[in-house]
């Protein structure tokens, strides 16, 4: 494997392992970094989706008790009691993931096709615009009165799953839009974050599988580089999740989205002019 590929793989793994836990679109920011170091826009988008597998392993380890509870409820799951007791989490994950697939798969096909037609500068600017949109949504969710809901309903599962489907677009933060959706539905912030991250596990695995199938393998990266990137993202993700989750509770990330989005829009415009 070329030393440049290894450097890019390590860099991508570190960036993914950190920004996955922040509501600023890990996919969008990783795609920005990859594009900035010379990776083609459509390949950068696919790699950003694929590398979520690493942080999915981190999240699965961190939330292993919640996952164990959800899996334990599957054998005794009953349709009439789908959203009662321990069945609620399992039902929430299944319904939300189905909705994510219905919304996300068509958007993924559209996004990859569009990215393949855009120059690096325009692609960066588009990500910037979507980051700003994410910032507006998070800002709006801060004005919502804190509720007391902690257990997802069927309607909330459908809503959050559909919203998560839009996060297939680089610049739309998965955790940002799903957590905001829960807050708009009067959920307690800790419950909103927990439910959002639980949903990230099957959603990220599904996105990675979709990427591999659509690209016919690993897009633009060797198996060795992919393994290095995944390993780095998993280790960095596990080491940073607890700290960054506390940071999320204190920092207005709508402002961060505005800042990153603004820089990307201006930077993308400059790159387009220069090129």
Automatic annotation (TrEMBL):
GO molecular function, one term: undecaprenyl-diphosphatase activity
Pfam families: BacA
Main location: membrane
Membrane topology: Multi-pass membrane protein
Enzyme Commission numbers on file: 3.6.1.27
Catalyzed reaction equations: di-trans,octa-cis-undecaprenyl diphosphate + H2O = di-trans,octa-cis-undecaprenyl phosphate + phosphate + H(+)
Protein location: Cell membrane
GO cellular component, one term: plasma membrane
Function: Catalyzes the dephosphorylation of undecaprenyl diphosphate (UPP).
Family: Belongs to the UppP family.
Designated name of the protein: Undecaprenyl-diphosphatase
Lineage summary: Archaea, Methanobacteriati, Methanobacteriota, Stenosarchaea group, Halobacteria
């Amino acid at each position: 494997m070329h030393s440049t590929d290894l450097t890019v793989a390590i860099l991508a793994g570190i960036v993914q392992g950190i920004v996955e836990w922040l509501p600023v679109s890990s996919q969008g920011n990783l795609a920005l970094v990859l594009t900035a170091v010379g990776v083609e826009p459509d390949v950068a988008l696919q790699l950003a989706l694929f590398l979520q597998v690493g942080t999915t392993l981190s999240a699965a380890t961190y939330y292993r008790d919640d996952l164990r509870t959800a899996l334990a409820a599957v054998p005794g799951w009953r349709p009439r009691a789908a959203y009662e007791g321990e069945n609620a989490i399992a039902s929430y994950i299944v319904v939300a993931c189905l909705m994510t697939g219905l919304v996300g798969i068509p958007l993924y096909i559209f996004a990859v096709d569009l990215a393949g037609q855009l120059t690096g500068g325009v692609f960066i600017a588009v990500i910037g615009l979507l980051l700003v949109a994410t910032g507006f949504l998070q800002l709006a969710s801060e004005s919502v009165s804190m509720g007391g809901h902690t257990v997802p309903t069927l309607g909330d599962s459908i809503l959050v799953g559909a919203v998560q489907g839009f996060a297939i677009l680089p610049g739309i933060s998965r955790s940002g839009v799903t957590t905001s959706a829960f807050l708009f539905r009067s959920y307690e912030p800790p419950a909103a974050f927990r439910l959002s991250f639980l949903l990230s596990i099957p959603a990220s695995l599904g996105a990675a599988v979709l990427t591999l199938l659509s690209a016919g393998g690993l897009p633009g990266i060797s198996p060795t580089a992919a393994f290095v990137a995944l390993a780095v993202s998993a280790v960095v993700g596990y080491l940073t999740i607890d700290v960054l989750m506390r940071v999320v509770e204190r920092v207005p990330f709508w402002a961060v989205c505005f800042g990153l989005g603004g820089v990307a829009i201006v930077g993308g415009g400059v790159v387009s002019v220069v090129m």
